[in-house]
Write a structure and sequence with these properties.
The complex is a heterodimer. Chain A is about 20% helix and about 20% strand. By secondary structure, chain A is of the alpha/beta class. Chain A has two domains: about 70 residues, Fe-S cluster assembly (FSCA) (GMP Synthetase, Chain A, domain 3, 2-Layer Sandwich); about 60 residues, no CATH class. In chain A, the strands form two sheets. In chain A, strands 4-7-6-5 form a four-stranded mixed sheet. A three-stranded mixed sheet of chain A has the order 1-2-3, covered by helices on one side. In chain A, helix 2 links the parallel strand 2 and strand 3. Chain A is elongated, with a radius of gyration of 18 Å. The termini of chain A are far apart. By secondary structure, chain B is mostly helical. Chain B is about 65% helix and about 0% strand. In chain B, helix 5 packs antiparallel against helix 6 and helix 5 packs antiparallel against helix 9. Classes of the chains: A alpha/beta, B mainly alpha. At the A-B interface, loops of A face helix 2, helix 6 and helix 9 of B.
């Protein structure tokens, strides 16, 4: 049992969560990706609210388990992981540090700052995205598939250095 | 029809559309024309299966008989499935798969956009989540209709055939019955007929740009929403449900 005098404060807990890597893109943490939506005490129980990136993302249950194990390792045994759907996850929640880590890892971060885009009914308003190659920085790149190794990514290739790379899609 | 019964039926329709189309797309895994398309089709399937879980879990909650998404997916017979006929049609060639996807995505997008304003916040939340994924699906299937329609002689011929052959299943998307009437009455979802003009506008503009001709609206094949399916659904379920039927309650 954790009483309110000895229990760690929420800022401390958040820094522990900063060390929990995403299972599919381990270079970024679950907090970098903006998956952790809330950390709070409900009496003696710690509640961590997480949101899925994509509704079918198989990593979501692994993330819940990883968070639970990381916090148990810090001595927090009375905890509950809450799944939250609303508001839906957006790549706008990826932190600046997260974007830089993705880039350094070879994954181009989401291009647009805001995920708001013209609807598919305004096809002619949509502009092709300029995605810079994470390896050489060239903007002469081409999309080769709308999807990559996970639902959150698309496949691109750099026409300058020829490197194929993943692009973290903007949603 | 009483509100709760209609809501349960309506949620089954939403969940079953996603489940059956997701299963159809997953049949391409390992068989696609190119590795990139294998990844893409499997990922679209994954999105749809994720949405299935959200809709069918909510359906089970509304029904209140202890059934969850797994039980509803694995332990109902064909007559109890509520998906539209379009999504159970065989994959055919890649053109058929993408034409089916485009017809469905354009409608799915419009429907979900309306459902984000549902009076039931649970429905609105799932719709908002799914809409982001489906927007991307629609962009992709539209691109393929354009690319194949306005492509080589061979790809044009195949896409035109696919557009023609699947047309008869699109009328059902806009057909309202007693379930829809109760849903409209309670502000839970839109009148299916109200989506038709926007859908037709997008499909027409896309077909035109793709140098394809669209069939005239006419007689429509329907019945899926009420559980009257084509012969294809039974075969899908034989595959989809095999494990739970052969080894009841198996988990791993």
């Amino acid at each position: 049992m954790t009483d309110s005098l000895t229990r760690p404060n929420l800022d401390q807990i958040r820094t522990w969560l900063d060390d929990v890597p995403d299972p599919e893109v381990p270079v970024v943490s679950v907090t970098d990706l903006g998956i952790v939506r809330d950390v709070r005490w409900d009496d003696d129980e710690l509640v961590v609210a997480i949101t899925p990136t994509y509704s079918g993302c198989p990593a979501t249950s692994v993330i819940a388990l990883d968070i639970e194990m990381a916090l148990r390792a810090k001595g927090l045994n009375n905890l509950r992981i809450e799944r939250r759907l609303s508001p839906p996850w957006t790549t706008d929640w990826i932190t600046q540090e997260g974007r830089q880590r993705l880039q350094a890892y070879g994954i181009a971060p989401p291009a647009e700052e805001k995920a708001d885009k013209p609807s598919p009914f305004d096809r002619f308003l949509r502009k092709p995205l300029t995605i810079a190659c994470p390896r050489c920085g060239s903007e002469n790149t081409a999309r080769i598939s709308e999807f990559g190794s996970t639902p959150c990514k698309a496949q691109y290739q750099c026409r300058a250095c020829l490197e194929p790379f993943d692009y973290f899609k903007c949603i | 029809m009483a509100g709760q019964d209609a809501l349960f039926e309506y949620l089954l329709r939403l969940g079953d559309n996603a489940l059956i189309l997701g299963h159809r797309l997953s049949e391409w895994c390992g068989h696609s024309p190119a590795l990139e398309e294998d990844l893409a089709l499997s990922n679209v399937a994954l999105d749809l299966i994720g949405q299935t879980q959200l809709w069918l879990n909510l359906a089970g909650e509304v029904e209140g008989k202890g059934r969850n998404a797994d039980k509803l997916a694995y332990l109902r017979d064909a007559r109890d499935f509520r998906n539209v006929l379009l999504v159970e049609q065989p994959n055919g060639d890649f053109a058929v798969t993408m034409a089916r996807q485009f017809y469905f995505d354009a409608w799915h997008y419009l429907l979900l956009r309306e459902l984000t304003g549902s009076t039931d916040s649970r429905i609105a939340e799932i719709a908002a989540k799914a809409l982001k994924e489906v927007t991307y699906h629609l962009e992709r299937s539209q691109e393929w209709v354009l690319r194949l329609g306005d492509g080589t002689e061979e790809s044009h011929r195949r896409m035109q055939e696919a557009i023609d052959d699947l047309w008869v299943y699109t009328g059902e998307l806009f057909d309202a019955d007693a379930v829809d009437a109760a849903i409209i009455r309670d502000g839970l979802g839109p009148d299916p007929a109200s989506l038709r003009d926007l859908w037709l506008g997008l499909v027409r503009a896309t077909a035109e740009e793709a140098t394809l001709s669209l069939p005239q609206p006419g007689w429509a094949q329907k019945g899926g929403k009420q559980g009257l399916h084509s012969e294809h659904l039974g075969y899908i379920l034989a595959d989809l449900q095999f494990l739970q039927r052969a080894y009841p309650n198996a988990t791993w």
